[in-house]
Specification:
Length: about 180
């Protein structure tokens, strides 16, 4: 029931139809990324302005976060809400710009959930954030989502069901 409420809240608040649900295998992988971020991510929060435009509240949204900086200075982030009332996942590609006395971010952020269904797309620049049609940045969303799936797979290469050689060797070496 909570999952159903999560799936309907952003679409109802923002009046947009969600994109089609991705295949089952991709859903399972995104759930695993969410678990990885919740268990190993750092505690942060999403700014009230960004949370409001994403439709997940008007206060700072507490999240667990995994972020990686690209060679061009863009931060790719996967943030999972830790607020039981405002669950969701925010994936972003933002670059921090410092000009004289101003510091701001430029890029995109997407609201999704465990299923990987794209719920909301926003663009962020010096003038603030604005809602975009999901189709306008869907390919970039998929690329960044795939980036995090690959990062998870790289950190936990033992995804097969067969026993690992280390376990077998240990079992055989016992007296």
């Amino acid at each position: 029931m909570l999952f159903a409420a999560l799936a309907l809240t952003p679409a109802a608040l923002l009046g947009q139809n969600p994109a089609p649900t991705p295949p089952f295998a991709e859903q399972a992988e995104l759930s695993k990324v969410e678990e990885w971020v919740l268990s190993q991510g750092i505690a942060e929060s999403i700014a009230p302005e960004l949370a409001a435009i994403l439709g997940v509240g008007s206060d700072r949204l507490p999240v667990k976060l995994k972020a990686f900086r690209t060679s061009d200075g863009t931060n790719l982030a996967f943030a999972v809400s830790t607020n039981p009332k405002q669950q969701g996942i925010v994936i972003s590609a933002l670059k921090t710009i410092a000009q004289k006395t101003e510091i701001y971010s430029v890029g995109n952020a997407w609201l999704t959930d465990r299923s990987g269904t794209l719920r909301q797309t926003i663009a962020v620049d010096a003038s603030g954030a604005r809602v975009l049609p999901n189709s306008s940045r869907a390919a970039k969303f998929k690329d960044i989502k795939d980036f995090f799936i690959k990062k998870l797979q790289a950190t936990s290469p033992t995804t097969t069901l067969s026993p690992s050689p280390r376990i077998s060797a240990t079992a055989k070496s016992g007296r």
